[in-house]
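Fold sample X.
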Amino acid sequence: MKKLALLTVLAFLSGCFIHAPANAATDAADLSNTLIYAGENEDTLNPILNNHGELPGIIFSGLMKYDVKGAPIPDLAESFIYDNSALTYTFKLRQGVKWHDGTNFTAGDVVFTYKLLAEDENLTASIKSNYEDIADITAPDAETVVFKLSQYNAAMLDNFTIGILPEHILKGRNIATTPFNQQPVGTGRYKFVEWDTAGGTITVERNTDYYGKVPNIDRVVYKTVAVESAKALMLQSGEADLAWLNANYAERFRGNTGFKNIDFVTADFRSVAMDFHTDFWQKNGDSIGVLNYAVDKQSIINGVLNKQGGAAFSPIQLNAFGGNKRADLYAYDVEKFAEAMTKLGWAKGSDGIYERAGQKFSFTIQVRDYEEERVDIANIVASQLKSAGVDMRIALVTRFDWKAGYNGFLAGYAVEFDPDGAYSNFVTNASQNTMAYSNPEVDELLKRGRHTADPTERRKIYGDFEATWAKRPGHLLVAYLDGNYVSVAGLSGLNNERVLGHHAVGVMWNIEEWTLTR
C-alpha cells in the first residue's frame, strides 16, 4: 500500500495522471448526484462569524444577495424602499419562507440578527464595523423591517447581504459558543446534515422547500482539507470533484482528459501584514513602504503563481473603485531602496543588515506551514529583502499565535464588492483591524467614502485613499492571485464572470445552476 501511494504522488507531481476509481466502499448511488468539494478548514458555519467561507453562503440567505456583477439585489427581501430624508430602509419580506427545521421565517429573525450586529457589545465579529451606522431596527409587522440610520452609508445594501439567523434557536444563547455554529439551521439553498469532525467532512443537502430555484445537485460533501497538495491528489484520485488549487497545482490538470480548469478573477491579495501591536513597527512603521523597492514581485508571480496573478500596490486595486496608478509608488529598484533607507536614517551594519538608533532592521512573521504557496512567497520575499539588507525571519506555525509577539504574518485579504470593505481592515480600532494599523488621513478618507453618495466623488475619495495608504502602508503588498479551480469533466454550470474574494471564495454563488454527470 505504501508503495502504491508513493507511486500515485510521484505520478501527480511529475505531471502524469493515474485515474483511480472512487472509494469502492461508498455506495455509487449515493455519489451519483453528490458533489465532493475539497475545501478549506472550517471552525464555524455561522455567517456573522464566518463571512468568507463557501458553506454559510449556501446554507443561509440575506435580505440581499450579490448578482453576477457583484451588485446587491433582493433575496429574502421581496422589495425595499430607501427614504433619504428619513435615512430609513424599509424591507418587505418574502412570504412563505421557512427555516430548514420547518419554522416560519419572520421579521423577528431579521431584527434579532441585526440587533446582534449593531447593538451587542459582547459580540466579537470581524464585520461588526459594517453596522455601526444603524441607529434603530423595528418590525411594524411580520413581513416588514425598518432600519433607521444615523447617517447615510453608501455600502448599506452590501451589508444587508449577511445571512439571517433564526431567533427561535439562538435567542438568549452565547453566539460565540453555541452548538448552532457547527449545526446550523438556515433558509438557504442547502440545509445542514452532518459535520463529521473525525472524517473531516461537512454534508449538506438541497433544500427542496427553497423559495427560489432548487439546486440540481442533491448534496454537497465538503471535505475540510488544510494541505494544498492533498486537494490536488484528491482530485486526481477521484476523491473530489472540485477544488481551488494554487496556480502550479492547477496547471498540472490543464489539457488532461477528465478535468476542467475554470479560472476566475479574484480580489484576493497576498502581503506581509505588519503587527503594530509590536514595538518594532511602532518605532519603524515609516519604513514599510520602501520595502517594496527591494521585492521583485514579478519574479514571484512568474514562479510561485505560474503567471496567474499580478503585482499588488493597493488593497482595493481590483475593486471597481480601485486601481489608482498614483498609488503605484514603488517599482522594483534596489538602488532606490538603498537611497530611501539612507534618507530614513538607516545604515548597514558590519553584517550587511540595516540599523537605526541601535536597532537592527530585523523582524519575524508567522506563516502557516501547510499553505505551500504562502510559504513559498514568504521565503522569496525574505531572500530578496536579505540581499537588500533587511532581515525578515519566518516562523512556520500550524495555527496563528497572536500572543507570541511575532511582528506580522503572511496575509491574504480581498475587497471584491463595495470599496467600503476596506473600512473594517484599516480604520483605527475597526472590527477587522487586527494588526492595529492607524493613520488619521486613511481614517478620514474611508469614513468620507462610506458616507458619500455620488459614485464619481466616491471614486475620487478611494483613489486618494489608495495614494495616501501607499505612502504609509500597513502591509508589504506582493501579488493578487487568480482563482484557479479544477473540476471533474462532468461538472457544469460554474460561472466565472463574478470577481471572487479571499481564498477565491464565492465560487458557489450560482450553485443552483450546476449539474453533475458521472
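Fold sample Y, listed below.
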Amino acid sequence: MEKEENILGYEKIGKLMRKFSIPCIISLLVNSLYNIVDQIFIGWGVGYLGNGATNVVFPITMICLAFSLMFGDGASAYLSLKLGEKKKKEAAKGVGNGIVVSTIVSILLCIISLIFLPILLNLFGCTENLKDYAVGYGYIICIGLPFSMIGTTLNSIIRADGSPKYAMISMVLGAILNIILDPIFIFVFKMGVQGAAIATVISQILTFIINVLYIKKFKNVVIDKENLKLKFSVVKKVSLLGISSFITQMSFVFVVAVENNLLAKYGASSKFGSEIPITVLGIVMKISQILNSIIVGIAVGAQPILGYNYGAEKYDRVKGTLKIVLILSTIISVVAFILFQTIPDKLITIFGSGDANYMEFACLSFRIYLLLCICNGIQIPSGIFFQAIGKSTKSIILSLSRQILFLMPALVVLGKIFGINGILYAGPFADGLAFVISVILLIIQVKNLKNSNVASKIIENDVSINEKLSKNVVITISREYGSGGRYVGRLIAEKLGIKLYDKEFIKKIAEETGLSEEYVENNEQKREALSALNSGYYFGLSNSDELFVKESELIKEVSSNKSCVIVGRCADFILKDKDNVIKVFVYSNIDDKIKRATKIYGFDKKIAEKEIKRIDKLRANHYKYYTDKEWNDYSNYDICINSDVLGVEKSADMICNMVKEKMGI
C-alpha cells in the first residue's frame, strides 16, 4: 500500500501557518503578559520606583526560567525522540528525570535566592532608592520559584505529549488570575509591590497544579516511581537537548544585568538620575518583547513546514513559506515602529505617570533604543529559518549576534563615550548589524535553493542471496573517513555471500520520510558541534532525529531477517543487545587516509586532510548525541583494525575468519 504523503508537503501553506503559528503566538504572548501586567498595576498603584524594583528582580526569574526551559524542552525532545524509536520506557524515564531534576534545581535556586537576594539585586543594578521595593517584591517571588519552574517544565512536556491546548489553557488561566488578583492586592489591600508579587505567585501555583494533574493523564508514557529515580546519563541527555533554550535565556540575563548597571552609573550623572533609566528601559524592553513574541510565534509555527520541505527538496514551498513569514513579521515590525515613534508618551502612560524627566526619557528610549525595531522582522525569522533547515552554525550566529556580539560591547563602549544616551544608541547599533548579517546569509541561502520538486522514489526489492552461513549473523562496520571501511564492508559481504546494507538505506529512508535522497545522504550520520545549542523543542522531531529513528527501525528489521553487513549509522549501538552481532571499527593513520582520499575522491592534499577531519568530527558528534558514547572508543567494538597494516582485502579476510570462528563454520 502506497504511503500517504506528509501533510507538510502538500497542504496550503497559509492553512499550515494558521494551524502551527497561532498556538505559538498565544503561548508566547501569555508568557510576556505575566510581567507586563504586574508593571501596569504597580506603575499606577506604587509609582515608577516600584516598576524599577521589578526590573532588577526580573533577571532572577529569567535565570530560573532558563533552567526550567532547559529541563522542560530537553525532556520534551527526549520524549519525542524515544517515542519515535518505539522506546516508551526510555521516553518515560526521560520525562520523569526531567521533572525530578527541575524540582531539585528549583528548590536549590529558591534557597540560594532567599539567602543571597540583596547581593543578587546589587549585581543586577539595584540602587538605594529601589532597594526596599526590590527586596519586598523579590523575597515573595523567590518563594514561588519552585511552582513557577516546575509548572514551566511540565508545560513543555505536556505540549510534547500531544496536548498543546491543555498546556496553553493552564498558562492562560494563570495569566487571567494574575490580572484579577493584581488590582485586588495592590489597590484594595494596599500591599504595593508585595501584593503584585503575591498575585504572581498564586497565579503560578494555579498553573503548577493544573500541570501536575496532567502527570496521571499522559497519553504516550506512564510515569511511575521507577521513572522518577535520577539516572545521570538521562539527566545529561535531557539537559543537552534543552541547552539551546538555556543559553538563549541566560544571554538575556547577562544583557539586562550589564544594562541596568550602566543605566544606574551613567543615569546618576545625568538629569534623569539612576532610577528613571532603569525603570523606563525595562518597560521599553518588555513592550518590545511583545513584538518579538508575535514574530517568534510566526516563525516557529513555520519551522516544521520549512524543515520538511527543505529536506524533501520542495524548494518552491520553502521559498513560499519563508516569504509569508518575512512579510507577516515585517508588517508587525512596521506597525510597532510607527507606534514607538509617534505615540511613545501614550505607551509609557499605560504603566503609570511620572514627572517631566520620566516622560522625556521614555520618549527618547522608544524613539532611539527601538529605532531599528523594524529590522526584527527579518533578523528573528532568519535565525529560526536556518534552525529549521539544519544550518545550526548560522542559526546560532544569528540568534546570539544581537544580544552578545553587538549589544553588550556597544553598551559598554557607547555608554563610555556618550553617557546615558550611548546606552540608548546601542539598541539600533546592535539591531542594524544583526540585520545586515541576517540579510547577507539569507540571500546566499535562498540563491542556493533549487527550483525543483522531489520525484517519486522507486525502491528496489532486496536481491535474494544464497547465504553461506548456517546461522544468522550481523557484522556492523564503523569507520573513519578515508580508512576504506566501506570497501572492507563490501568485501566481507561478498566473501560471506550475505547482503550489504549501506546506501540502500538512503533510498528506503527517502521513501519513508518524504525527504530527498540527496538530503538524506548529506545529513545522515553527521551532526554539527553547535547543533546541541540549537535544538529547542517546538514541534515533534527534527529532520535529523527522524532520520535516526527511521534508520534504527530499518536496521532492526533487516538484521532480524537475515545475515548481513551494515555500514555505519550507529548500528553497533542500535543492535547492542543482540548476541549475533560482531562489531567492527576500521581506522587508519592520517597520511594513509589522505592518500586514499586524493586517489579515490580526487581531493587536493590540503583539502583532503581538512575534509577527513571535518567528516570524522561530524560522525563523532552524531554518535555521541544518539548513544552517549565516544565514537572512537575501542571498547564499543569487538574488533578494531588498521586497514593499512594488512590492506583492505586482507583486513576483510581477517574479519571473515573471525566471523566463521565465532559462528562455528
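Sample Y note: DSSP finds 25 helices and five strands in the chain.
Also: The chain has three domains: 27-260, 273-453, 474-663.
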